[in-house]
What we know:
Number of domains: 1
Pfam families: PP-binding
Family: Belongs to the acyl carrier protein (ACP) family.
Largest sheet: none
Number of strands: 0
Function: Carrier of the growing fatty acid chain in fatty acid biosynthesis.
Helix content: 55-70%
Oligomer: single chain
Protein name: Acyl carrier protein
GO biological process, one term: lipid A biosynthetic process
Strand content: under 5%
Amino acid sequence: xxxxxxxxxxxxxxxxxxxxxxxxxxxxxxxxxxxxxxxxxxxxxxxxxxxxxxxxxxxxxxxxxxxxxxxxxxxxxxx
Length: 79
Protein backbone atom coordinates (compact mmCIF):
# COMPACT_ATOMS: atom_id res chain seq x y z
CA UNK A 1 0.00 0.00 0.00
CA UNK A 2 1.11 3.56 -0.62
CA UNK A 3 0.92 6.52 1.75
CA UNK A 4 -1.84 7.94 -0.48
CA UNK A 5 -3.90 4.78 0.05
CA UNK A 6 -3.24 4.59 3.79
CA UNK A 7 -3.79 8.24 4.75
CA UNK A 8 -7.59 8.51 4.19
CA UNK A 9 -8.24 5.37 6.23
CA UNK A 10 -5.97 6.60 9.02
CA UNK A 11 -7.64 10.02 8.95
CA UNK A 12 -11.08 8.46 9.33
CA UNK A 13 -10.04 6.17 12.18
CA UNK A 14 -8.39 9.01 14.10
CA UNK A 15 -11.27 11.39 13.42
CA UNK A 16 -13.82 8.81 14.63
CA UNK A 17 -11.85 8.04 17.80
CA UNK A 18 -11.21 11.66 18.73
CA UNK A 19 -14.50 13.15 17.50
CA UNK A 20 -12.72 15.34 14.93
CA UNK A 21 -13.28 16.02 11.25
CA UNK A 22 -11.02 14.00 8.92
CA UNK A 23 -9.67 17.20 7.38
CA UNK A 24 -8.35 18.19 10.84
CA UNK A 25 -6.05 15.16 10.68
CA UNK A 26 -3.10 15.96 8.40
CA UNK A 27 0.29 14.30 8.00
CA UNK A 28 1.94 16.93 10.20
CA UNK A 29 -0.68 16.57 12.94
CA UNK A 30 0.78 15.58 16.32
CA UNK A 31 -1.48 13.30 18.35
CA UNK A 32 -0.84 14.89 21.73
CA UNK A 33 -0.13 18.52 20.82
CA UNK A 34 -2.62 19.06 18.00
CA UNK A 35 -5.40 16.57 18.78
CA UNK A 36 -5.16 16.50 22.59
CA UNK A 37 -5.06 12.70 22.49
CA UNK A 38 -4.25 11.02 25.78
CA UNK A 39 -2.64 7.61 26.17
CA UNK A 40 -6.01 5.83 26.15
CA UNK A 41 -7.02 7.60 22.93
CA UNK A 42 -3.74 6.59 21.30
CA UNK A 43 -4.15 3.00 22.53
CA UNK A 44 -7.63 2.82 20.97
CA UNK A 45 -6.41 4.34 17.70
CA UNK A 46 -3.54 1.85 17.54
CA UNK A 47 -5.93 -1.06 18.17
CA UNK A 48 -8.14 0.04 15.29
CA UNK A 49 -5.14 0.62 13.02
CA UNK A 50 -3.81 -2.86 13.82
CA UNK A 51 -7.19 -4.40 12.95
CA UNK A 52 -7.69 -2.36 9.78
CA UNK A 53 -4.21 -2.86 8.32
CA UNK A 54 -3.26 -6.20 9.92
CA UNK A 55 -0.08 -4.79 11.47
CA UNK A 56 1.36 -4.95 14.98
CA UNK A 57 2.49 -1.68 16.53
CA UNK A 58 4.75 -2.01 19.55
CA UNK A 59 4.46 0.54 22.32
CA UNK A 60 8.11 1.49 21.90
CA UNK A 61 7.55 2.75 18.33
CA UNK A 62 8.10 6.49 18.18
CA UNK A 63 4.81 7.46 16.58
CA UNK A 64 4.01 11.06 17.40
CA UNK A 65 2.49 12.37 14.19
CA UNK A 66 0.06 11.09 11.59
CA UNK A 67 2.97 10.89 9.13
CA UNK A 68 4.85 8.60 11.54
CA UNK A 69 1.84 6.29 11.66
CA UNK A 70 1.20 6.32 7.91
CA UNK A 71 4.87 5.62 7.15
CA UNK A 72 4.92 2.78 9.69
CA UNK A 73 1.85 1.15 8.13
CA UNK A 74 3.23 1.54 4.61
CA UNK A 75 6.58 -0.02 5.58
CA UNK A 76 4.93 -2.93 7.39
CA UNK A 77 2.47 -3.64 4.57
CA UNK A 78 5.39 -3.89 2.11
CA UNK A 79 7.32 -6.31 4.32
